[in-house]
Amino acid sequence: DATVAMGCCCKEKIDEDMTGEEYMEKNRRCTDVLFTLIFLAFWVGMVYAGAYGFSKGDPRILVYGTDYQGNLCGKGALEDFKVRYFVNPYEVLEAGNTAGANIKDAKSICLKACPAASSTLSWVCNYPDSLDSRGLNAITSTTTSYDQWAAMNYDYYSSITTGSHQANSRVYKGPCYPVLLPTTESYGTCSYYAKQTSGAKTAFASLLSTNSQSTPESYDLDDKVTALSDAVAEMLSTPASVMERYIEDFAKAWVVCLVCGFFAPVVLSFVWLGIMRYLAGFFAYFVIAFVNIFAILCTLWLYMKAGVIGNDAIAASDEDGGSSYTDPSEDNQEVLTYAAYACTALTVILLLFTLLMLKRVRIAVAVIKVATQCIAAAPMTIVFPLIPVFVALALFAYWVAAAVYMYSAGDIEQQSCTLTAGAQPQRYCADSADAKNCHCGYETKMTKDLQYMLLYHLFGLLWTTQWLQALTYLTIAYVFALFYFRGGSFSEGMRGCCSSPVFQSFKKMTWFHNGSACFGSLLVAILQFIRIIVAYVVHKMKKAGNDSCCIKYAACCLQYCLWYLQKVLEWINKNAYILIAIEGKSFCFSAWEAISLIMSNILTVGAVNIVGDVLLFLGKLGVALTSGFFAFMYLDTDEYTEGDNRVSSPLLIVVFVIIFAFILAGLFMSVVEMGIDATLLSFCKDCKIHGGKPKFAPPLLAEVLGKYESKQKARNAANRQ
After folding, report:
1. For 139, 285, 407, 579, which has the most beta carbons within 10 A of its beta carbon?
2. How far is Cα 215 from Cα 225, in angstroms, rounded to an integer?
């Protein structure tokens, strides 16, 4: 009977007069409350970590770096000195062209504005209170403020006549450095952009000649302006500039991206939902017939090539007419014969499996149609997932900002580097024995507390995104379950935005089952966090050279096992959320009940999943390719092939449209997938509580089961006769 066909467990005790909605609500209570409290407490820590980063950090230090004393331009005593200037162009060139050299070690200083090379020779000198005692105050025993230093145009070369300070300055060892190349500000850093001014160049050459000195290098700086600019730009930018031409194409073709990348996928997704509602049966049986016919044709082809059927067997070519060798075609035919036998066995198994599954395919088609009916009755269901997507995007933006600020809140310390005679930075030190004068550049180093804080922050991102997904699953599952248990309809009171099934479902699931969402999402987040830690450890081992074949194999196996375990856990969570929506019980109980129902109805579940997955994948693929085709046809018009709006290549735009359309269609199809799963488990639960004969099933599903039972009764009557 139907009970055996559905593989349902024993009947639960239930009041036969109870409605489906009453059954759903009879055991509903707040579940797993402890995990809600833990989640809230965790987010208190997240807020504290973010506040600490925003108050202590400054991301500019990660982009622009520090001056030669480890200070960030525009901060503290240098509040008005916001521009960073590299005083020694030779040091910058060496950092860009020499292996092991680092531009962070090149000496830089904070100024109010980038110095402008003029027709007369000018200098930029150390801070007046320079820590290495090579500033104006220490040399001349005076007290000069930063504003007075700026008013001097940063130049006190003529005032440091004692000792060897002027001689050192002429060979770029400080405390003063000649300004020969014009610079311009770019993202808070002075970048070289033109050749030396002739007047300053001549004056500096004359000064060197008079004192029998020469520049650190024999080449002319005029020939290195491009290299200097590139060295500074490389520090400030990424290879994203390579995409400049394509970004311009996107700016020109934004209408195509909007129409074909957003509106077209939305419309086509709704069209496909309509096709699934009315033609799901046709597609399901077409796919089944196609697979079986293809298997039969492959089997027949193998028999033909093996020479068992017809005369089209594979034969060896004998151009020389000799017969003293073994014909290799005989071996080929033997192999093909065995392959044909194997294919025959597989085809027979496939045919038997198809015959066994036909009645369940009818149920699968009915389940899919019921799910699409629910979407038609509650259209907000299809739009609801966009809300957590936007919330997740906002969360990610906050998380990135907080993480950057936390990372920049570390201690500014000197880099660990080797001071080598004749190489940067020691080559340009006035006194290599003085650690304050001759040292490597500065970098931000994270303390242990900050490292743990960042890890805490990372886990918070994983947990919160999974929590958002869990609440989305619960909300959508309850809508579909309610539609099923109400017999394929919603009450008249569920009209309007605030009273819609989706809004009511969200309120109920958030109030009663937020703890279960926190619990399930915590389990997945822990696994994701472990996977990230393992991947990081593997990366560090490879970087250290500890990547033997055995270690690689073990790491690969471990990572795959963790990935597979995460997928299994996500599958369990998803079905647990559906049972929570149906019965309102705790996460662990619902997870066990969901697995029990699925195992009891494994063939029906398999049929529904196979048919549903095929139809949903075809929908996503069809929407993406059709949107891409529309985009290509749009870009092939005169508007984008001629004139000012001409794009250099439509390829990247079309690929972007296809990818974005696939993602957008996947978002819509995920609602349908959840609806199919929720409807199926509601059906299985209905079977279980009513001894295999579902009482609350919507008319469409009940009609399919009624036809099946009528055929079963007729068949049983015929057998008795």
Report:
1. 579
2. 16
